[in-house]
Amino acid sequence: MGHSKQVRILLLNEMEKLERTLFRLEQGFELQFRLGPTLQGKAVTVHTNYPFPGETFNREKFRSLEWENPLEREDDSDKYCKLNLQQAGSFQYYFLQGTEKSGGGYIVVDPVLRVGADNQVLPLDCVTLQTFLAKCLGPFDEWESRLRVAKESGYNMIHFTPLQALGESRSCYSLADQLELNPDFSRPNKKCTWHDVGQLVEKLKKEWNILCITDVVYNHTAANSRWIQEHPESAYNLVNSPHLKPAWVLDRALWHLSCDVAGGRYREKGVPALIENDHQMNCIRKIIWEEVFPKIQLWEFFQVDVDKAVEQFRGLLTQGSRKTTTKPDPQQHLKILQDPEYRRRGCTVDMNIALATFVPHDSGPAAIDECCGWFRRRIEDLNSEKHQLVNYHQEQAVNCVLGNVFYERLAGHGPKLGPVTRKYPLVTRYFTFPFEDTTLAEEEPLLHLPHRACFLMAHNGWVMGDDPLRNFAEPGSDVYLRRELICWGDSVKLRYGNGPEDCPYLWAHMKKYTEITATYFQGVRLDNCHSTPLHVAEYMLDAARKLQPNLYVVAELFTGSEDLDNVFVTRLGISSLIREAMSAYNSHEEGRLVYRYGGEPVGSFVQPCLRPLVPAIAHALFMDITHDNECPIVHRSAYDALPSSTIVSMACCASGSTKGYDELVPHQISVVSEERLYTKWNPGASPSDTGDVGLQSGIIAARRAVNRLHQELGAGGFSQVYVDQVDEDIVAVTRHSPSSHQSVVAVSRTAFRNPKTSFYSKEVPQMCIPGKIEEVVLEARTIERNTKPYKKDENSINGIPDITVEIREHIQLYESKIVKQAGVTTKGPNEYIQEIEFENLSPGSVIVFRVSLDPHAQVAVGILRNHLTQFSPHFRSGSLVVDNADPVLKVPFASIAARLTLAELNQVLYRCESEEREDGGGCYNVPNWSSLKYAGLQGLMSVLAEIRPKNDLGHPFCDNLRSGDWMIDYVSGRLIARSGAIAEVGKWLQAMFFYLKQIPRYLIPCYFDAILIGAYTTLLDAAWKQMSSFVRDGSTFVKHLALGSVQMCGVGKFASLPLLSPALRDVPCRLNEVTREKEQCCASLAAGLPHFSSGIFRCWGRDTFIALRGLLLIPGRYVEARNIILAFAGTLRHGLIPNLLGEGTHARYNCRDAVWWWLQCIQDYCRLVPNGLDILQCPVSRMYPTDDSAPLPAGTVDQPLCEVIQEAMQRHAQGVQFRERNAGPQIDRHMKDEGFNITAGVDEETGFVYGGNRFNCGTWMDKMGESERARNRGIPATPRDGSAVEIVGLSKSAVRWLLELSRKNIFPYREVTVKRHGRTVTVSYDEWNRKIQDNFERLFYVSEDPSDANEKNPHLVHKRGIYKDSHGASSPWCDYQLRPNFTIAMVVAPELFTAEKAWKALEMAEKKLLGPLGMKTLDPDDMVYCGVYDNALDNDNYNLAKGFNYHQGPEWLWPVGYFLRAKLYFSKLMGPEANAKTVFLVKNVLSRHYVHLERSPWKGLPELTNEDGQYCPFSCETQAWSIATILETLYDL
Questions:
Q1: Among 283, 562, 1051, 1357, which has the highest number of CB atoms less than 10 A from its own CB?
Q2: Residue 580: beta bridge partners?
Q3: Rounded CA gap, 31 and 1356, in Å?
Q4: Which tens digits make up the pLDDT trace of 143-183?
Q5: Cα dihedral sign, 1337-1343-1345-1351
Q6: Neighbours of 174 (CB within 10 A)
Q7: Residue 52: which of 42, 60, 43, 63 has the closest Cα?
Q8: pLDDT, average across residues 892-902
Q9: Is residue 527 flagged as an active site residue?
Q10: Which of 305, 527, 1262, 1375 is labelled catalytic?
């Protein structure tokens, strides 16, 4: 918990292409790539172009990252490769699987901006930017006095429009020369240079703490740029882009039409020079259709010359060059091939297709004529199709032309250009024409003269709703022909091609331009970014970042989609996207934008330092108005300038404005036509001054205050935001600091409508502000003053003089003129609420409060944070040390946690509803939601893990915490009610919660989570510390699986296990609360939660011993393992271990396999535990010394374990036969009478253990039919009588082991003695062992050879090359079913198997049985297979009703462990390649279990899934043996 380095984890998943996903990171972060479940176990390499430390970035140069596996462990859950991010920009990564590219994306690392002489950091959220049109700054020596206005207004960044020499139109964005400074900045006697500009920028940075950025314009250059005439190849001209020729012809025709209209030649036809109404518009439409289009015949550019084509075709036919050998491709039809030079009727068709399509009957002239006739008609049809297509384009062109005319001349919001003239033509020209005008007919031949056509260049512009990733001037786009371009007639679009080699001069020129910019400025704004080819912008920004590594890049995108925005942001590494408040149509929407563009909700959860990398939205530069947009005073009112700028300023992102907004300039300052200069700073300026401004001008004084506030909030970490729409005009924005819990609340009353002409209510609603108002930071009202009204000045850009702000800063609440009165109410014992009543919150007013928690709560938060620092350094800020804390808080929580045993941790962390009920409690129920899965901390943590990353503060769980202390008291009270170390944990929590209850309710979820996370992670560490080194040093996956041991192994109120011998040492005891006497309290294993967790259904012999190695021995819980082995040994009866334990007294001896699993566990215990063989001499208290004795108290008859083992072996060799006690419905309400007869024995010939009959089921596949309706009641679905394969394997393992021990004289018996035919016969373990070995493959292997003599039932064989599921079943076909049980025998007795045969059988199991999480319990090709288990379904289907198919298809998890372990074992024998492939398989399969374990609220693995891994609602959510066998697999790995 202790580290505070920020680490983000990016999970890689197969085929996941994240090019449109934005991942934002900061310098100093570590980025880790980890393998998602689809890639674990596979050979994956991650490549990135993020450079090695100290190397310069090269976009094309990728390197592969080294994998780090900190523990060199068994699985891939912790394997990662990392980048330490120290460089700003956009970086790409992709990953390969082998040599195949499998996915990738981009990461964007933010720049670090620095200002001042001491280079202090300026966080991006502190930026306050102001835009200046460079041409309005005047001569360079006057700049400082004009820029000082920005400094005095509190801005810390200035954005200059381009400083370059401007083109003819004088638009700020039409540049005549990208390398030359605008000559307007020089005086006749003093030339201004780039160096001078650079010195000023440096001065602003060092002395004024202001950074400067400027535009880069890559898309176009001024039409009169000298260099474009010298290098026409840099533009889209009619030589390099002949596809534009038809559009050029149309453009010239429209120009001539425009000149004719201007000259009055169309007055008779209803079109005068001054167009004023719809009738005249319709006349223009008619003229274009009837005169322009027929004259220019654009369709000819797309058509074939019919006569010429027919003649060519005839020639080919008569020459007989038609090759009859080539068969025509039926897919290929005759189509027009476009003439690449776009000459009229210059298109062609493919003559080979024509010859193959039109075939004459014979070679006679008549047949050839007929054939040419067909061909002619086909060509005429094709030409006609092209004519139709052009007609469709022309319709769009006419609509666009008229739309343009309407906007420019008729529309109310348009520029109303007046009469058509040569200066203001009917429509803007799309192409340059640097020659004398003649007639269209004389001009057209220029098309085909390259030395002339290269100067006919396309203008730039923008296309409404176009795909920004498509270049509209390239071939394939008809934008120019369809007149869809909104054209900038002063600029030529630049043609870069695919790379520098396509247009070397242009790339070099623009690169130099970029380098000049990056040399002198700290950032750039990408002008017209969405139309700039991405590869061009990438190349240029790479050049800029070489000179200015922390380049601040901003852009405004008009893509209309966040998805597309992200393409630009990720590829170019854009630092901030410009967003505009003017886009909001009302105050509600303006408030929504504040919430959208920054910050997290107030009271958000504390996120861990190490966490997944989540997609972000682009960082915003939120501007009240941008320089190329309409003036808000026109659209709203002058009174809205102050409230809207305050709302924007309160956003948790960068903010900005445009010069002129603060001075209340009542019109748009045009980037094209404005030639006046900005005002200068003069502290003493009077309102009527037009050339100077001071603090009393416009809203400048208030702007200074809100800019300073914006910077203070950004720097002070006020990262939480709440927006409250108080009424239709009033927006309250809260910024909250999650460490100090101070808030700043800005209440703004907007004035979207002019208060002079619109009604605003005098009644303003009361406001409730939680906490204690420390001061009024600012109150400001927009007011009128008595000065001359506004008159537009000729030389200076002046604002409205008669409106200003009345402002007061840092005053007490009682001094406020806006607040009428403030009452204090308390809500609950520890929540201050101040009720504010306003009296002068007129439209155009703002009031900003600084609010802190009430002092009592502030102290409580400080104390909480102080105690939380033991878990994370994050809480140091705002923490408070006090002496009088509860003594329990004076010790570190880790030392309290260290005193808990693992059995006690089971109570603190887990316990499901039924376990808790035994103690008289239950799990906490969250109203309007559901109960927690566990009563312990895991129950809460599972919910919080879902809520925390999403900050889902509206979840019912959080509602419950905010509404009252019930959950808080439940958590601590439940533990305090227990005794000892558990109660200590409860007391610690109670002491922490004492302070938690004193803080405002909205903060409780966040701090409750922080307390629990700290305690929970400490408790988990305490658990792992008590486990084996395999777990302690294991991977995250291993550790989390090992917690299954804590989850399943516990002590209830009532003993689940029979009592152990009093002679045994180290048996855990406790004081009985009722009798006050000492009693044993051994931990027992639950079979599964929630169904098998309490009462007599908790402990099952088979489940316990299948799970014991994985859940107790491997985690190092040796004493608990020993106690369970010995407790079950005490219940041995008839040579069997009970299935349902029932505390021994209610045991059922109806399973044939539990005794063999028990013996396997004793063997594992002896192998894994230091001095493990000692267990053989441990005393076992026999509950039933004879089969018929009544249950005896512990200690009455004790025997060493080795004798009990021998008894089990002896009884099997002799043969076991009995009828279950109390046979009948009282112990099994479905079983048929014969089912209660239990048999087991050992076959004399083969040594195989056998048993059972067709009415009972003595193995783990133990489903008994329950449906009367389907007539399966009392019939086992899977009796598996005879010799079940896994029992044969387990007994072989036991016999072999006992043989080894007896040879070493550790086990005192070498044989079993049996009575046969009245004689006593001895069978040695050696002989028994050999019999099984010699007969196993002979009788269990289904040979691939159909004529194999060993096969007694060839007609029953369904699959070959497998091992049978049983031998000698009463239904012989059951022996031949493919099930996963043979893999168990492979693990416990691999010596029975031939490696090659085993390997093939495993491959078959993998192909047929392996599912996502479990193993199919039956071959899907089997006729009774059904993979969906539904225990509630009762119908007529014999195979399904009442869950009869429990083991006939559903995918059980625990056999997967045995399958994988078998596969690992035999893969080593099959060679290195097979082994490597198997390790991949194992890791890949296990990764799915890891994902399930992480996502499951139960933090476990289920009993089973339905087919293909689908969730099964009837399964236990977490099952002991499922977790155990997966942990065993990792142990083997």
A1: 1051
A2: 623
A3: 58
A4: 999 999 999 999 999 999 999 999 999 999 999 999 999 99
A5: positive
A6: 27
A7: 63
A8: 96
A9: yes
A10: 527
- Reported as a single tens digit per residue, the pLDDT across 1109-1153 is 999 999 999 999 999 999 999 999 999 999 998 887 889 999 999
pLDDT, tens digit, for every residue of 647-688?
999 999 999 999 999 999 999 999 999 999 999 999 998 888
For residue 1018, count CB atoms less than 10 angstroms from its CB and return exposed for 0-12, middle for 13-18, buried for 19 or more: buried
Active-site annotation holds for 3: no
pLDDT tens digits for range 387-436: 999 999 999 999 999 999 999 998 888 888 899 999 999 999 999 999 99
The residue-averaged pLDDT of 1474-1495 equals 91
CB 1085 within 8 A of CB 1049: yes
Question: 782 and 845 in contact (C-beta within 8 Å)?
Answer: yes
DSSP letter for each residue of 950-966: HT-TTSHHHHHHHH-SH
| CA of residue 510 relative to chain centroid, distance | 38
- Beta-carbon contacts of residue 119 (< 8 Å; ≥ 6 apart): none
**Which of 159, 243, 393, 530 is an active site residue?**
530
Query: One of 565, 628, 692, 1228 is an active-site residue; which one?
Result: 628
CA distance 1154 to 1152: 6
| pLDDT over 80 (residue 71) | no
To the nearest 10 degrees (0 to 180), the angle between helices 1004-1025 and 956-963 is 110
Region at 1398 (left for phi over 0; alpha for psi -120 to 50; beta for the rest): alpha
Q: What are the DSSP calls for 384-429, one per residue?
A: HHHHHHHHHHHHHHHHHHHHHHIIIII-TTS----S--SSS-SS--
Q: pLDDT of 1413-1447, one tens digit each? A: 999 999 999 999 999 999 999 999 999 999 999 99
* Residue listed under structure tokens 């994956």: 44
Q: Are 837 and 813 in contact (CB under 8 A)?
A: no
Distance CA 957, CA 954 (A): 8
Beta strands 100-109 and 24-25 are parallel
1252 burial (CB, 10 Å; 0-12 / 13-18 / 19+) is: buried
∠1127-1130-1135 over CA atoms, to 5°?
125
Region 589-611 average pLDDT: 89
Catalytic-residue membership of 530: yes
pTM, two decimal places: 0.87
Burial label for 546, CB within 10 Å (0-12, 13-18, 19+), is middle
Q: How many CA atoms lie within 13 A of 859 on its CB side?
A: 8
Note whether 1309 and 1265 are within 8 A (CB).
Answer: no
| Distance between CA atoms of residues 593 and 209, nearest Å | 28
Q: Which of 889, 883, 961, 887 is nearest to 926 (CA)?
A: 961
3-class SS of residue 944 = helix
